[in-house]
Amino acid sequence: MKRNIQFFTHVVPLLLVVALLLTFAAPAFAEGGPGKLPKGAKTIPLSEVMKEWKDVPPSIGVNGGMDPNYLFSVNELQEMHEKTLRAKQYYESRHISPNYLGSKTLSVGYYPEPDDDDHVNYCGPAATLVALSARQPTSASLLENVANEEWIHKPDPPNSCAPGVCMWKVRDVLNNRLNTTHYVRDSAQDANEFYSWVVTDIDHGYVLVTGVLTTYMPGWHVTAPHIVAVHGYWEASGDHQSVKYIETSSPHAGYNGPYYQSEERNRFFDVFVRDNNAQAK
Predict the structure, then answer these.
(1) Which end of the chain is more exposed for a tag (fewer CB within 10 A), N or C?
(2) At 216, which CATH number?
(3) Is residue 112 part of a domain?
(4) pTM of the full predicted structure?
């Protein structure tokens, strides 16, 4: 009898608290987002969501990479999982025919990083301006303000991604400035998942921001952790898709190439993204 009393006085209240947390953990999407899960859609238990996160390929942890000191809340983990599921369902639903071809490019502003020593690590703030410009008028003069909001001048700690910025700060600035909850911080499992995020975001009017490593990227002659803004995609055939991205970096930072770039989607993820795998999607 004593065990039964302890169960109701200790275990039941704990279960109620967990249930409430999961109830309020449902993500809120901005207007124009992928929408609610359809009836009967399968979801994964929170324990599996957390296991998925642990299985993501490791990131080098700077300039858009995974912040080793950042702890994701239950709500954030649930948002990441729910949004990934919605993107998968949206992406699969649009390919009704195996011959379906599609493409879309968002109009964005011009925000090259200043070509000097003081701005060689400003790819995060510049990519943020690109993403903002797809949704609202954005002045290049905001670069320094956004850089400060993303903690670019703060040392480690608290900025674990110094001398660059962490992707969770990019997420926060985008959501704050757009007055939305659209963006979540995540890391794609593979090229297919990454591309489904790109298509879903672009089709709903949002730029996807991602970490990359420059080793084999066109126009680069140095290896560096980097952040770019994906503003479009192009499908030439059922088996060939490309992503369109913006390069804001300067020659001083090691980049000599055009502002507008594109790459085949598998190569983009496997060669550019995988070693600095962090997205604001």
Answers:
(1) N
(2) 3.90.70.10
(3) yes
(4) 0.78
